[in-house]
Design brief:
CATH topology of the largest domain: Cytochrome Bc1 Complex, Chain A, domain 1
Helix content: 40-55%
Shape: globular
Number of helices: 15
Largest sheet: 7 strands, mixed
Strand order of the largest sheet: 4-5-3-6-2-1-7
Radius of gyration: 23 Å
Distance between the termini: 65 Å
Structural class: alpha+beta
CATH superfamily of the largest domain: Metalloenzyme, LuxS/M16 peptidase-like
CATH class of the largest domain: Alpha Beta
Low-confidence stretches: 210-233
Strand content: 15-25%
Length: 434
């Protein structure tokens, strides 16, 4: 199972992995555009377009898009992040050509009719309202605003109901034409895929077309393919997009009709190295990932202060976000926050134990191996490797990096990036009773 890659003359990047025994496939069209690319008057645009493409194309109605793949047992969906947009399918191998044609169609030929824009604007407005009713989502969005301030990463992917009303058809068509261009697209596939055949299909399905000159990369006149992604010099070039520099931690409190206090704390780690990434991943497991983590054992199991508490780590551009979430009764807030901060201080004061290090390594390796045993997991890994690194690392290389982590490495990274005074804090708390 050696990944293969081709960069077409129009700039489109194709990465695939052939698994000869697979009877199904995972296929994704990844657009290198996310909410970070929106100007202030465009907030919510990327997510809006992700919804609208399913409303109809030049040759498919919304009903046909919904039914065509599902009628043969397949599945199609999409998601938007701050960094990219992905449209993906899962189906049996005999329906690969149909899936590929559908994804190419909705990405390139959406109609953006006025009636559909009006309908989808109403749908997303309801989605935004539902998120506002979810304290865990609301507190996370507010933490992003604290972490990133005026930076594009600060605003919500969905935008605001008021902002959506200002986005018109001409704006949508312009944004789509500007960003949905071949040189900003990665097609990733895993299954019993013939790479050469896939490339020929995509040369037809994604023809070169005019784009703003400043976006066009310098590409060779003929497609280039090598046997291994790791040695392909014609790789997709990830765009540099750094989070803002660290600044003094801030706190924010939002009052809504809720029963619990919801706490979210976070810190940005700018441009981590590979060693940083794996060390912080291990630290995250020790701190708050799983039942045996420190936060769960202390705050929930020992003191019974909450039901839900965890830490997380997420990639964003060339940076990482480390975060902690907890929900508890308002009367338990002071004690719970004291204990959480004590654990955050602890990870910067003393190295984790050998048993914690071993558990973290085993969890990381297990998660990685289980992920690549899934067709969807492999498809995602291929695409994200291109989007974030422009290259691919084998499973063996990744496992070796995990095994090389030491307790001292983790302590040094915690002391460098995770000082307790650097954590921003957002809270959603119950409204005061009249």
């Amino acid at each position: 199972m050696t990944p293969q890659k081709t960069r077409l003359p129009n700039g489109l990047c194709i990465v695939s992995e052939q698994m000869s025994n697979a009877q199904s496939f995972a296929l994704g069209v990844w657009i290198d555009v996310g909410s970070r690319d929106e100007k202030p008057h465009e907030h919510g645009m990327v997510h809006f377009i992700e919804h609208l493409v399913f409303r109809g194309t030049e040759k498919r109605t919304a009903r046909k898009i919904a039914n065509e793949l599902e009628s043969v047992g397949g599945y199609m969906n999409a998601f938007t992040s701050k960094d990219h947009t992905c449209y993906y399918t899962r189906a049996l191998m005999q329906h690969f050509d149909l899936s590929l044609d559908m994804l190419a169609d909705i990405c390139q030929h959406p109609l953006f009719r006025e009636a559909d824009i009006t309908k989808e604007r109403a749908v997303i407005t309801e989605e935004i309202a539902s998120l506002q009713d979810e304290p865990e989502e609301l507190v996370t969005d507010n933490l992003d605003e604290l972490l990133f301030d005026a930076h594009p990463y600060a605003h919500s992917i969905s935008g605001t109901a008021k902002g959506l009303q200002k986005i018109q058809r001409a704006d949508i068509e312009h944004f789509h034409k500007q960003h949905y261009t071949p040189e900003r697209i990665i097609v990733s596939a895993s299954g019993n895929i013939d790479h050469d055949k896939l490339c020929k299909q995509l040369e037809t399905l994604f023809p070169a077309h005019s784009s703003p000159k400043k976006l066009l990369p310098k590409v060779k006149k003929t497609a280039k393919r090598t046997a291994s992604i790791a040695h392909d010099n014609s790789h997709f070039t990830p765009r540099s997009f750094l989070a803002p520099p660290r600044r003094r931690a801030e706190e924010r409190e939002i009052r809504i009709a809720t029963q619990q206090t919801h706490l979210c704390m976070g810190v940005v780690v700018p441009k981590p190295s590979d060693a940083d990434y794996y060390s912080l991943s291990a630290l995250n497991i020790v701190l708050g990932d799983g039942m045996s983590s420190r936060l769960n054992q202390v705050v929930r199991e020992k003191h019974g202060l909450c039901y839900n508490i965890y830490s997380g780590m997420s990639e964003i551009g060339e940076s990482l976000i480390m975060s902690v979430y907890a929900g508890f009764e308002p009367s338990k807030r002071k004690k719970a926050e004291q204990l959480i901060r004590k654990e955050l201080e602890g990870i910067t004061e003393k190295a984790i134990t050998p048993s914690e290090l071993r558990r973290a390594k085993e969890q990381l390796k297990s998660s990685l191996i289980i992920g690549v045993e899934s067709l969807s997991g492999r498809m995602n890994l291929l695409a994200k490797s291109e989007l974030y690194m422009g290259t691919f690392e084998s499973l063996e290389v990744r496992l070796a990096k995990i095994e090389a982590i030491s307790s001292n490495d983790i302590l040094q990274k915690a002391q460098e990036y995770l000082r307790v005074e650097d954590w921003h804090t957002a809270r959603v708390v119950p409204k005061k009773r009249k």
